[in-house]
Write a structure and sequence with these properties.
Blueprint: E1 8-9, E2 15-19, E3 25-29, E4 38-42, E5 48-53, E6 58-60, H1 89-94, E7 97-101, E8 104-109, E9 123-129, E10 135-141, H2 143-150, E11 154-157, E12 165-166, E13 172-173, E14 182-183, E15 189-192, H3 223-234, H4 246-255, E16 257-260, E17 262-264, E18 266-269, E19 289-294, E20 297-302, E21 310-389, E22 392-395, E23 399-402, E24 406-407, H5 425-428, H6 431-454, E25 464-473, E26 476-486, E27 492-501, E28 506-514
Parallel strand pairs: 17-26
Antiparallel strand pairs: 1-2, 2-3, 4-5, 5-6, 7-8, 9-10, 11-15, 12-13, 13-14, 16-18, 19-20, 21-22, 22-23, 23-24, 25-26, 26-27, 27-28
Length: about 525
């Protein structure tokens, strides 16, 4: 037995013998065999089976546990393998693992076979082996290759439409294989390509979500919704890089602009439409009307000093007509009525009025080619230097020159509807200035009426509006502002308006309308 044995052994101390007192010879094998070249095992029939060859360092004669697979594409696990059983070289070479594609057997991978991972359509493959001998297989999408192979609608280009390709190292090149020019990332844009692969022919991009949340098949947007959507955009602080749709552009265009005159009437104009502002004058003056900003509004104002060629009005009616200079080619008015007409110089080519009525007409110089009036009435006409009417001159120094005949020391004449008396300078004082002021006041009043007429008003039930209007009539200008509002049921319309003209005359009006 292979146990500790107290006896004599051979030279190699592998076999021990012992003779007992009863002459029994016991042969024992050492636990640790040494200096043995080989060991040959035989079966019960004395046929060689397993051999351990010390010189060749091999073990032969072992049974194979794993046999080669019948199908080279798929192997099966051995049935009932015995744990601890020695595997042969054939067992190792016949072992392996199955490789499948979408559940279908493709190959039985055995030792020393090669599995090669290659790039696919739109993918790149890399194998990374870490220090711990773990290999990682990474399959990445290649957007540029995927775009080229599947004809995606968006590709990289330069501004002129030249295709640009992203390379594995992250750079961009105008050659697909990276053999061309490297393009700076700042020069690269994303472009649409059509079915033919062109990046210069414009394409239509549809099915884009609306930024303003409208026009998803419900038809053109109305004005109210468009204005609400536009106001929301003004306070939007996110999604500012979202694409806009045609419907979004329509909403902004439909929101347009509202114009409000002094009467509060609103005129709505979508973007692209024209707003007509009509004054009615055909012969225009310069530098008499200004537009200034006040409180976020544009105010149309008349200049303090008005310079026009002529003033025509039915009536000029004012308490005081005071001006540094009154100069016009034609001053035409049916009636000129004022308490005081005061001007440093009155210079007009024609002064025509049915009636001139003023208490005081004061001017340093009154000069006109034609003075026509059925009636001139004034308490005082005072001329500091002279009055010239054509060839007729009335002056402080020279008296009255009536075509070669001197008229002086004229007493105050009787002023009345039937009077034929001449009037003196005191009676003529302030006349022409009053005439001009009255004419301006009358024309300014007409301008106020015209400005009222231009005002718009609220259109729909529940709407309110404010409107501004301006009008010019024969040299006088008026600015009107109005407000209007419909009740929610659309039955009642309330309007109010105020105007001021270049003669600083305020005009106020209001109305209420019921409709059924």
């Amino acid at each position: 037995a292979n146990t500790d044995f107290d006896g004599k052994s051979d030279k190699g101390k592998n076999i021990y013998t012992k003779i007992t007192d009863d002459d029994t010879i016991t042969i024992a094998l050492a636990k640790d065999l040494k200096d043995i070249s080989s060991v040959q095992f035989v079966d019960n029939s004395n046929n060689p089976t397993i051999k351990i060859d010390g010189d060749k360092k091999t073990i032969s004669g072992l049974d194979e546990t794993i046999t080669p697979p019948a199908d080279p594409t798929e192997g099966t696990k051995p049935v009932g393998p015995t744990d601890g059983k020695v595997a042969t070289v054939s067992d190792i070479l016949n072992s392996g693992w199955n490789l499948k594609e979408n559940g279908d057997a493709k190959d039985f991978v055995q030792p020393f076979d090669t599995v090669d991972f290659i790039d696919g359509a739109g993918t790149t493959v890399s194998v990374v082996t870490n220090d711990n001998n773990v290999s990682q297989i990474r399959v990445n999408l290649d957007a540029d290759i995927l775009t080229k192979s599947t004809q995606l609608p968006v590709v990289y280009t330069t501004a002129d439409g030249t295709r640009v390709y992203k390379q594995p190292d992250g750079t961009f090149n105008d050659d697909q294989n990276g053999l061309g020019n490297t393009i700076d990332k700042g020069d690269i844009i994303a472009s649409m390509q059509d079915a033919d692969g062109s990046t210069t022919n414009p394409n239509t991009l549809s099915n884009v979500n609306s930024t303003v949340g409208h026009n998803k098949g419900e038809g053109p947007i109305n004005v109210s919704d468009a204005q609400d959507a536009t106001r929301r955009l003004l306070s939007e602080d996110a999604n500012l890089s979202n694409a806009a749709t045609v419907g979004d552009l329509q909403a902004v265009s439909q929101a347009g602009l509202d114009f409000v005159g002094d009467d509060g009437s609103v005129i709505h104009k979508p973007l692209g439409e024209t707003l007509g502002i009509k004054g009615g004058a055909t012969s225009l003056s310069e530098n008499n009307i200004g537009v200034v900003e006040e409180g976020g509004e544009l105010h149309i104002k008349l200049a303090r000093d008005i310079d026009v060629d002529s003033v025509t009005t039915q009536n000029i009616n004012t308490n005081n007509l005071i001006s540094e200079n009154i100069e016009t080619n034609n001053l035409i008015s049916k009636n000129i009525i004022t308490n005081n007409l005061i001007s440093k110089d009155i210079n007009t080519t024609n002064l025509i009025s049915d009636r001139i009525d003023t208490r005081h007409l004061v001017s340093k110089t009154i000069q006109t080619n034609t003075l026509k009036s059925k009636e001139i009435e004034t308490n005082t006409i005072k001329v500091q230097e002279k009055i010239s009417i054509g060839k007729v001159v009335i002056s402080k120094e020279g008296g009255i020159d009536a075509g070669g005949k001197k008229i002086t020391n004229v007493a105050p004449g009787n002023v009345g509807p039937n009077s034929m008396d001449a009037i003196n300078g005191a009676q003529f004082y302030g006349l022409e200035q009053d005439l001009d002021e009255l004419s301006k006041d009358s024309k300014a009043g007409i301008a106020s009426s015209a400005a009222f007429a231009t005002l718009g008003q609220a259109r729909d039930a529940g709407d309110s509006s404010i409107s501004a209007g301006v009008a010019t009539h024969r040299g006088q200008t008026a600015l009107a502002v109005g407000v209007s509002a419909w009740t929610d049921d659309g039955k009642w319309l309330l309007k109010g308006a105020a105007a001021v003209d270049t003669q600083k005359q305020p005009t106020v009006g209001g109305s209420i309308t019921y409709q059924w």
